[in-house]
Each structure stands twice: as structure tokens, then as C-alpha cells.
Amino acid sequence: MVLVTEENLPRREHVLILLTGATGGLGTLVAERLAGQGDVVLGTRAPERVRVPLPVRPLDFDVPDTLAGAFAGVDVLLLVSAGYGEDDTVIARHGAAVDAAERAGVRHIVYTSLTGDGDHLPYALPHRWTERRLREGSADWTILRNGLYAELLGQLAAPAPDGRLTAPLGRGRLAAVARADLADAAAAVVLAPAAHAGRTYELVGEEALGGEDLARAHGPGVVYESEPLALARERLTASGAAPFQVPMVLGTCSAVAAGFLDRTGGDLRALLGRAPRSAMDVITGLSG
Ligand SMILES: NC(=O)c1ccc[n+]([C@@H]2O[C@H](COP(=O)([O-])OP(=O)(O)OC[C@H]3O[C@@H](n4cnc5c(N)ncnc54)[C@H](OP(=O)(O)O)[C@@H]3O)[C@@H](O)[C@H]2O)c1
């Protein structure tokens, strides 16, 4: 692969966009969409794992000293939430990122948050903290309240080889959204940030899916069995999951089962300018 550096990019009168989380699932998709669209740099803890040929700046929210250099000259920051950790860890990360962006003179921060219907989720608090920090801050902001990924639902409710699809979702459904659509929406916003300043967008899917829907879509012979949360907790704990991951997963399933995450609609279609991808196609592998 040809090594792309900021020095050998043609200079144009563009704003400089930096996106964080560049090696993650969402960040990689956004980077693919921004490639060739102007002055874009990728921020990551792991430059060697970047898969999109754009200039890279190393950064780590856990090491705030890395952020001043990374954000120098940046006009628009796409702050991809770094949500794996206890609340105090995630708040410290996002706080360090916003502080550094403001000090560097970043004009507009776009933040990937969590759907408003996710307030019952164990990881909602750092998102709401970050939203409040942005609203009270000095930079323009846009908040993308992302719904839960179709890819995540597919993992939570995957059929076993014997055809049983076991998950603690009860009869609840999730307005799941394709991660690729969230990437399209984020790219559209960072490329025209002024049109989205001060806006908070609800980006959930247009179809709510539950265990029985998934079993049907996976084909004949697949049967959904709802599992008690206590059993799922035992199974997850025994799998070696990190302590913070257990309530994350269980809380997500519990909120789906209790019917808090099935509201469809929102702003996704308007932001995309087209119909969203089918979440079911993403889960069953028909769409990426
Ligand atoms: N809506 C949903 O269903 C859903 C599901 C899972 C997660 N999320 C949230 O959405 C975010 C993006 O989703 P994803 O699918 O891209 O997750 P992912 O593939 O697990 O990527 C996580 C991202 O967090 C970044 N990160 C972690 N610690 C960081 C740190 N100390 N400093 C800077 N960046 C850090 C990583 O960036 P580098 O390794 O490149 O530095 C990585 O891109 C996640 O981080 C999480 O907060 C949402």
C-alpha cells in the first residue's frame, strides 16, 4: 500500500476533518466514505491497523498528552464514542477529548451518542454526560444519537448449530439500525457541518425486530427460546467477559425485552436522503 502522509496530499482550501476511532467498525466505515472528499485525517491508538489510505495521527483519549498534536489545525472533529469501560473511564476519555479539541480551536464537534430511548441502558450515562459537555462548551456541535446496531442484535441472538436461537429478549423488539447507515449519516454531517450545528438526531431503524422475527428469517428449523436474564448472566460471566461487559449486555437485552427500544422512525431517513438499509438483511448476511 502507498503510504499517504499529510505532506504529499494536494493542499486545498478545505476544512480539515479528523475522525477518531479510525480502526473500529464504525470509524472504518466512515473513513471509507470520507476518503477522497477533502482534507481528512484519521485519529487512532493503532495506526498500524488502519485500513483506509488516509493520513493518520496517533491519539489516545486515555493519554491526554497525545491530543493537542492530534487536533492541531483540525476544523471538524468526528468524536466516535470510546464506550468500553466503566462510566468514570469513559467520561474521563470524552472529557479529555472535548477539552483538547476546544483548546486546539476545533470549530465543530460531531459526537456519536446513544438513542434517547436508550436512557435505561447501563452505558447511557457517559453519553448524556458528553452531550451536556458539548452543549455547554465553546465549539459548535452535532449529536448523532445512534440506535443499537443490527450487527449487535445479530450477535445477541445468533442461532446455535442445533437450530435453537436462545436470547433473553422475551417478546421485545429492537429498532436496530445498520452500522453502515450510521456511517453514511456521520459522513454526511461532517462534510456539511454548518447545516447541522446545534442539532441532535435520533438515528434508529425503521423496523423493530425480536427473537421470533430473527428465527423466522434464519429459516425453517430455527426456533426462538427466550432465556431468563439470570441464566444469561451466568453464561456470560462464565465466558470470561470483563465485569463491565456483563451489565452492558444484560441491560441491553433487558431494555429490549421490556419494550423500551422498539420505537422506529427518527431522523435517519431524512439524513440519508433515502430509505435505510434493512436491519434484517444485515443480520442474515444479505447486506453489509
Ligand atoms: N450503537 C451500538 O449498537 C453500539 C454498539 C457497540 C459500541 N457502540 C459505541 O459506538 C462506538 C463505535 O462503535 P464501533 O462499532 O466502531 O466499536 P468498535 O469497533 O469496538 O470500536 C471502538 C472504538 O473506540 C475507540 N477507542 C477505544 N478506546 C479509545 C481511546 N482510549 N481513545 C480513543 N479511541 C478509543 C477505538 O479506536 P482506535 O482503536 O482506532 O483507537 C475504536 O474505534 C463504540 O466505541 C461504542 O462506544 C455502539
UniProtKB/TrEMBL annotation:
Superkingdom, according to UniProt? Bacteria
Q: Which InterPro entries match?
A: NAD(P)-bd_dom, NAD(P)-bd_dom_sf, NmrA-type_oxidoreductase
**Residue ranges constituting the NAD(P)-binding domain according to the UniProt record:** 21-191
- Pfam families from the xrefs? NAD_binding_10
Q: What is this protein called?
A: NAD(P)-dependent oxidoreductase
